[in-house]
Amino acid sequence: MPRLSIVVPVCNVEKYLDECLKSIENQTFRDLEIICVNDGSKDSSLEILKAHAARDERVKVIDKPNAGYGHTMNKGIASATGEYVGVVESDDFVESDMFQTLMDKAVASNLDIVRCNYWLYWSKPEPRDDLFEAFRNDVAGRVFNPRDVEQCFYFPPALWSSIVRRDLIVNNGLKLLETPGASYQDTSFSFKIWACAQRAELVYKPYLHYRQDNESSSINNKAKVDFVCTEYAEIERFVVEDAQDMSLMPIAQRRKYDAYMWNMGRIDPSLRPDFAATAAAQFSSALEKGWLDRGRFTDAEWDRLSLLMKDTDAFLDSFDHPVEERVPFLKRVFRKLIK
């Protein structure tokens, strides 16, 4: 039985797949299995996987009809046998000592989660890495309970920057939602992992190159836009039914605010009115239930959220202003509304 299972979800990534797999196969940490789950690729991805499996007995190939990222990840995790599970997306690649570093930390301190920073990577016009600092060095290098370091709940999901004890996933029955396609399905899953973990550590150094020039087209797809709402509905269900710990709900709502604002800014403008109306109704309901904690928002953020709930048209008008003008604009409009 390997100490570590690496799940690689694969769907039509022939251009990047070889580089990804070689970066995992060349890890200095050798006691691992590489579980590649082909989600109905129509290009040569499956042939590339089979070629790697023929050369390296640690590579396992699961081929299945296309069913989306959530289904693919659940299939891979269910097939894992390692003490810990990691993920590498098939268009990304990792440094050769990534999993040695994370596993050394995990084993030495009996951790549930170890997470590192990563680079944003562009291959064109010239290869370029920019550090994405999900957390700063002052919170890294020490063991903590996630309930005591709330900021970890606000990190981007980024499952591929972590390793997680497999028993934590299995014993708590954690799975990704199996909505179609590949949009947001790691959102609720990552929240649940942090909520269930008791021992975690952060590694400041980046080890993974997160590719930026292979972006999906979900910003123009209304169904995918709405998947973020499905993910937060699942988080709320988990808090109420599974965790039965309502102290997590204000954290969930704060994280939801960040996700919805980010989504609002990136989607096609034609989709914003419907999304804003949905968001307004959900946050208004959360306010009535006492789920929103004013202390977790800055004044500007609370003004923005209040405007969304009171007047979605005025809120949407704010997106016609440059970013540096939005906060003053929101304050002016909000003051008019409360007079």
Structure report:
Helix 6 runs parallel beside helix 7, helix 7 packs antiparallel against helix 8 and helix 9 packs across helix 10. The protein is α/β, with parallel strands linked by helices. The C terminus is likely disordered. It is 45% helix and 17% strand. The chain folds into 2 domains: 208 residues, Spore Coat Polysaccharide Biosynthesis Protein SpsA, Chain A (Alpha-Beta Complex), CATH 3.90.550; 121 residues, no CATH class. Strand 1, helix 1 and strand 2 form a beta-alpha-beta unit.
Write the layout of secondary structure elements.
Blueprint: E1 4-10, H1 17-25, E2 32-39, H2 45-55, E3 59-64, H3 69-79, E4 84-87, E5 93-94, H4 98-109, E6 113-122, E7 128-132, E8 162-165, H5 166-171, H6 186-196, E9 200-211, H7 222-243, H8 249-266, H9 272-288, H10 299-310, H11 312-317, H12 323-338
Parallel strand pairs: 1-2, 1-4, 2-3, 6-9
Antiparallel strand pairs: 4-8, 5-9, 6-7, 6-8
Q: Considering the protein shown, what is the CATH homologous superfamily of the largest domain?
A: Spore Coat Polysaccharide Biosynthesis Protein SpsA, Chain A
The radius of gyration over CA amounts to 21 Å
Helix % is: 40-55%
Q: What gap, in angstroms, lies between the N and C termini? A: 67 Å
Residues in β-strands, percent:
15-25%
**Number of helical segments?**
12
CATH class of the largest domain: Alpha Beta
Arithmetic mean of pLDDT: 91
Total number of beta strands: 9
- What is the number of independent domains? 2
- CATH topology call of the largest domain: Spore Coat Polysaccharide Biosynthesis Protein SpsA, Chain A
CATH architecture field of the largest domain:
Alpha-Beta Complex
Order of SSEs, N→C? EHEHEHEEHEEEHHEHHHHHH
Oligomer: single chain
Write down the overall geometry.
globular
| Secondary structural class | alpha/beta
Main sheet summary: 9 strands, mixed
Runs in which pLDDT lies below 50 for 5 or more consecutive residues are: 216-220, 322-339
